[in-house]
Amino acid sequence: MSQTNVVVVGAGVIGLSTALVLSKHKSLNVTVVSKHMPGDYDIEYASPWAGANFMPVGKEGSNLRAFERATWPEIDRICRELPEAGVHYQECRVYGRKKDEGTAVGIWFQELMKEDPWFKDLMPDLRILGKSELPSSCDTGTSFKSVCINTAIYLPWLAGQCLKNNITLKRGVLSHISEAPSHHSTGSASIILNCTGLLTSKLGGVMDTTVYPGRGQIAVVRNEPGAMYTTSGTDDGPDEAMYIMQRAAGGGTIIGGCLQHGNWDGQVDPNLAERILQRAVDICPLLAPETGKVTELSVIRHGVGLRPMREGGIRVEKERIGKDWVVHNYGHAGYGYQSSWGSAWAAEKLVLDILEKEGKMAKL
Q1: Would the annotation count 196 as a binding residue?
Q2: pTM score
Q3: 71 among the known binding-site residues?
């Protein structure tokens, strides 16, 4: 059987998930080329910095909502069946404050904060919290069963699954999307998957000016919170957030954060770091049970990541660029993990459409 060569550009959670989905087709020969690989920590590489968890935020009619709905059963299956992937279940407690409506974080978490959310039929054990279960500063609250992902295990696991399916992984720096086929293991490819996240804004042939960074800052601590927590905003500023999640398999507890649109600064802001830790201790007394003070937190590190934001939301589209077919899959902002499988399957469908039109339909 003749094979069609496909090259996936980008090895974050989106690129690796997309490559893995495509590799299930025996008629596709897949290479992943990327500047950054699992194990790297670089400001350009968003995936390792993510929490990462599953808190649905997709708005009605958005492809994000459809991707979240499609992704949850697969993440749930991985959590149940594949402990080596570094995913575990955790209760998620969501606290809303009326005064946060309209702020950067309030808009981000708008769907999440509803007491009758669209995902009530998707996420297990969803219930409305009673007033006695809420922090005094909050007006509403829900609880549901979700997951937290240890990205330091999950990304290498994805890479390992790719290798198991005969995908070639290689380093490469592209200045133009048309260079991608030459990076394929055979030296040529007829379909390119563009999963370059934030770097799409700088990639020749694409140069998407609607893509911009959403700066996030986190701390990783050894203390255990007992559950995941998030609120709709903070009194410290409209672009500051409060979220807590304990990564699976000894990955520590992630405490955040902020959503600073258009900010490329990769350096840790020590004042923001202090506010992030203080907010977490205030909301979750279990983090500092003896004194209730920040000094009780055992900090592993502070970090900064840049979410790959896009004004029009996630872009999953096919396009002819020069002589090459390009399938775009980028713009996942702060919800790459929770939309990864849904968007990978949408990209897969576009690849199969191209093959069908060219009379090379891939067989499963």
Answers
A1: yes
A2: 0.97
A3: no
- Rg for the chain, CA atoms, rounded: 20
CA distance 200 to 328: 10
Give tens-digit pLDDT for 65-101.
999 999 999 999 999 999 999 999 999 999 999 999 9
Residue 186 annotated in ligand binding? no
As a whole number of angstroms, the distance between CA 135 and CA 95 comes to 8
| Residues whose CB is less than 8 angstroms from the CB of residue 336 and which lie 6 or more positions away in sequence, other chains included | 12, 13, 14, 46, 47, 50, 52, 197, 308
Neighbours of 16 (CB within 10 A): 31
| Residue 337 is assigned to a ligand binding site | no
Tens digits of per-residue pLDDT, 184-197? Answer: 999 999 999 999 99
Q: Which of 302, 299, 310, 362 is nearest to 334 (CA)?
A: 310
Whole-number Cα distances in Å, 322 to 179, 193, 326, 350, 358:
11, 15, 10, 18, 17
Query: 228-231 and 240-246 as β-strands: parallel, antiparallel, unpaired?
Result: antiparallel
Distance between CA atoms of 317 and 331, rounded to whole angstroms?
Answer: 12
Structure-block tokens of residue 329: 């899959």
Q: Do residues 256 and 51 lie in contact, with contact meaning Cβ atoms separated by under 8 Å?
A: yes
